[in-house]
Design brief:
alpha/beta; 6-stranded parallel beta sheet; 10 helices; globular; binds 3-methylbut-3-enyl trihydrogen diphosphate; binds magnesium ion
């Protein structure tokens, strides 16, 4: 039985965050330039978006380009920027009813990249079936620092008192404020680290790591991750007995 058949579609995570890693190594194994790995990765994005939306997942957040990735060789950064423009094709979003959102420091992107992204964001803004958030020029520490600045400015202006700063104030000041926290985080490419991704938001996410390089990721592996997620007991600090009693209520 495939994982796709095994998963319970009534208990899907509403939000899956993915660290799409391994494009470079995928290409290297084939004696191809790293850029070809990224190109193959774009195809996988299309496949995974379609598969996740068809299953009923409401939010997907894809780590596309990190703040730290700006330090890669100029040629690779250039190629990635060009690929971003090329991959902003509307079919995948319009055919699946998907709204595109961006989280990250868009100001750092070359203008043509900003323009093609913004065009698609506007074009898809009324789609309601699911939302795909691309994390571009994103890092969690950047995001949290920006949130701290925003909150401090409100305090300085007298709009917000210290006593009224809650976890909700922080959550709603983050770039992800239009989504629930991800229940499931997937990282491909065999590394066991978070790489400055959604640190606040994944505080209670279930983590799933796979050795598959991103270009080799597919629907069945996505379903495998969801299946694993569904086998776990999410205790949120309670005892197993408490969780069992709660779920009977
Ligand atoms: C992930 O693949 C894509 C980006 C970070 C842009 P990598 O390019 O990091 O691939 P590896 O980890 O070098 O194989
Ligand atoms: C994380 O992958 C960033 C993206 C997938 C966009 P990296 O390949 O940049 O992360 P590290 O360098 O292995 O931590
Ligand atoms: Mg990598």
């Amino acid at each position: 039985m495939s994982y796709k058949e095994k998963i319970d579609t009534n208990r899907l995570p509403s939000h899956i965050a993915i660290i799409m890693d391994g494009n470079g190594r995928w290409a290297k194994e084939r004696n191809l330039p790293r850029t070809e790995g990224h190109r193959a990765g774009v195809k996988t994005v299309r496949e995974i978006v379609s598969a996740a939306v068809a299953l009923g997942v409401k939010y997907l957040t894809l780590y596309t380009f990190s703040t730290e990735n700006w330090k890669r060789p100029v040629q690779e950064v250039k190629a990635l920027m060009q690929l971003l423009i090329e991959s902003m094709d509307e079919d995948i979003f319009m055919n699946n009813g998907v709204k595109l959102r961006i989280i990250g420091d868009m100001d750092r992107l070359p203008l043509p990249v900003q323009m093609s992204i913004n065009r698609l964001v506007r074009k898809t803004e009324n789609n309601t079936r699911a939302t795909v958030a691309l994390a571009i020029s994103y890092s969690s520490r950047w995001e949290i620092t920006e949130a701290v600045k925003q909150i401090s400015a409100r305090v300085l202006k007298g709009e917000l008192s210290l006593d009224n700063i809650t976890e909700e104030t922080v959550s709603s000041s983050l770039t992800t404020n239009f989504m629930p926290d991800p229940e499931l985080l997937i990282r491909t490419g065999g590394e066991y680290r978070i790489s400055n991704y959604l640190l606040w938001q994944i505080s209670y996410s279930e983590l799933y790591f796979t050795n598959a390089y991103w270009p080799d990721m597919n629907e069945e592996e996505l379903c495998h991750a969801i299946y694993e997620y569904q086998q776990r007991e999410r205790r949120f600090g309670l005892t197993g007995d408490q969780v069992a009693t709660e779920s009977k209520k």
